[in-house]
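= Tokenised fold =
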Amino acid sequence: MTQLKNDTFLRALLRQPTDYTPLWLMRQAGRYLPEYCATRARAGDFLSLCKSPDMACEVTLQPLARYDLDAAILFSDILTIPDAMGLGLYFSTGEGPRFERPLRSEWEIRNLTAPDPHDHLRYVIDAVSEIRRALDGSVPLIGFSGSPFTLACYMVEGSGSDTYAETKKMLYGHPKLFHHILDVTATAVTHYLNAQIEAGAQAVMVFDSWGGMLSQAAYLEFSLPYMARIMAGLTREREGRIVPRIVFTKGGGQWLEHIAGCGCDAVGLDWTTDIGDARRRVGDRVALQGNMDPSVLFAPPEAVAAEARRIIDSYGTGTGHVFNLGHGISQFTPPEHVTALVEAVHSHSRQYHL
């Protein structure tokens, strides 16, 4: 494989010295970019875009053509695994993802099996390979998956939810059944991420988007242990380099110390946790990723730059920080405001890496 020209992101995740704080954005390839919207229109719909390796590669590279980002992230969706399990993923206009066959019956849950990523998710693995070739060593490629708990929420509810009533009814009323879903899904995620690593992903991230709606007792039983199991099962080294592992629980700042102990190299933070305080809490156990409120990008460029500088100042001197948003970028973000963010992070952070 081609030698990496910019490995700042990978070194920061492993808390190795860097010249500046690296930056990438959750959902950096998305609807805020007119070029993405044009490609999606050509694909016909979101799922067709995800399932075309050529188009997935095209949109993955689009933000890198605009901005001086330090990593690319595979363009895909967290719900590819339950779709491959046969739940029938589809997207309704204005309503988000839905499943034709949500898990409600015991026999459906007992029959659940982990899909072979090289078979049922071949389009994702092919996209990883194609993106890696197209990057040609410019920046690292991030692979990802949803967490077992977050995937289970969608699989039981059949869609997104404000209350997660069906999920919590099963979690508290039939915990063994719910653990079975998590067990199978954790196996599936581990195989899926390892297949992405084999195909060329140089770092991997687990998105626990809905873990923050649990109580602490439930989080420590139904979410974190399964992510820890995934971390332990991931390929640690590929092409002579360590493959860093990131875990992100939205709303999980109160459990930061627990998450830092799950075997990951970096913990993603949303914007509700001060990153300087988070650094004091975890010390040198893990790197930290985050954590600007995505809504800041609606403000004028000078305000965007000021907030980026404040977060960098809060983190302080030394390595171990990957700048990111605290959640995915909004489709209504002015693209030029992202330019201001990237320039501010790269220029202001250098004083902390002397």
The two ends are 31 Å apart (CA to CA). The longest helix spans residues 175-199.
